[in-house]
Amino acid sequence: MNSVFDDSKKLCLVSREVIPLTPYLNMIFEVEDLRVAFPVIVSRCGMIYLETSTTVPHSARTFSWIHSQKEMFETHIDQFKDMLLIYLGQCLNFIRRNCPEAVPTVDANLCMALFNMLESLFLLYLPDISMDETKPSQIKFDDIGECLDHLIIFTILWSLGATTNVEGKLAFNYFLLCLIKENNPELLDNPDAVEVNVDEEQEKDYNQDEEGEGDQSEKAQQQDLPREPTPMKKKREIQPAPNKGSLPPNSKIPT
Predict the structure, then answer these.
(1) Does 56-198 carry CATH code 1.10.472?
(2) Which residues are registered as beta bridge partners of 20?
(3) pLDDT, tens digit, for every residue of 86-127?
(4) What is the 3 state secondary structure string of the chain?
(5) Which residues lie in Acidic residues bias regions (predicted)?
(6) Which of 73-77, 132-136, 236-240 tops mean pLDDT?
(7) In the predicted model, what is the mean pLDDT of residues 202-207?
């Protein structure tokens, strides 16, 4: 793209083929971001912003993300599809109709927040490079298969349901519980059936964060905060400094 918009106006392909462009040729690019674009190139382009309803639907983004996880979790791909297709679309529609947002979001942002959070939770189940693993072990496969539904519900709450106010969160919580009761009632019947394996280092960090200096809950309760705002004191008026060589006001000139 950088070579097209410079002064030479030549399209350089990956095959090392160079195609000169005529002055009468117009091109339209659909780019993901501008990370590798030169500032001068951006200044020469005309930006076209599309409505979110006319862009790629969330189902296409879901299938694309699931395909990116296929290599690591191929045995659970169907479980991915079933859970996300059941919950994602209905939750997005509910948020758009019933949950006010202080900062408006688009469906693409909420979907990416959901996928990023899932990927962060999958780090425990990725292959161990120190053990020369190319794929997750069978134990990891079994563990993630047992808790995958719970992880998806957790990330839906903390990504899709995190942008609204308190009333919206309560409404979204009730709506999600109804969806779970309708589609996956086993998650509500026995919510403690799944145990997530946590290594010792993570558990140590968690305990230090909860019980050490990082825990501010008790300190916050001990603070004696005033219920009414304290009125501000009136600022003392400051007289401007006299100019150099001049006398201050009301001063007498010695004779």
Answers:
(1) yes
(2) 10
(3) 999 999 999 999 999 888 888 888 999 999 998 888 877 777
(4) CCCCCCCCCEEECCCCCEEECCCCCCCCCCCCCCCCCCHHHHHHCCCCCCCHHHCCCHHHHHHHHHHHCCCCCHHHHHHHHHHHHHHHHHHHHHHHHHCCECCCCCHHHHHHHHHHHHHHHHHHHCCCHHHCCCCCCHHHHHHHHHHHHHHHHHHHHHHHHHCECHHHHHHHHHHHHHHHHHHCCHHHHCCCCCCCCCCHHHHHHHHHHHHCCCCCHHHHHHCCCCCCCCCCCCCCCCCCCCCCCCCCCCCCCCC
(5) 199-215
(6) 73-77
(7) 47
141 CB contacts (<8 Å, ≥6 apart)? Answer: 73, 75, 76, 125
- Give pLDDT tens digits for 15-52: 888 888 787 877 776 676 777 777 776 776 666 666 66
Which residue has tokens 């000139």?
Answer: 253
Task: Write out the two tokens for 189.
Answer: 């019947």
Q: Is the pLDDT at 181 greater than 80, yes or no?
A: yes
Residue in 141, 140, 179 with CA at minimum distance from that of residue 157: 179
- Round to whole Å and give the CA distance between 32 and 54: 16
Residue 134 burial class via C-beta count within 10 angstroms: exposed 0-12, middle 13-18, buried 19 and up: exposed
Is pLDDT larger for residue 60 or for residue 74? 60
Rounded to an integer, what distance in angstroms lies between the CA atom of residue 156 and that of residue 111?
9
Residues with Cβ within 8 Å of residue 153, at least 6 apart in sequence: 87, 176, 180, 187
Give Rg (Cα) of the chain.
30
pLDDT of residue 206: 45
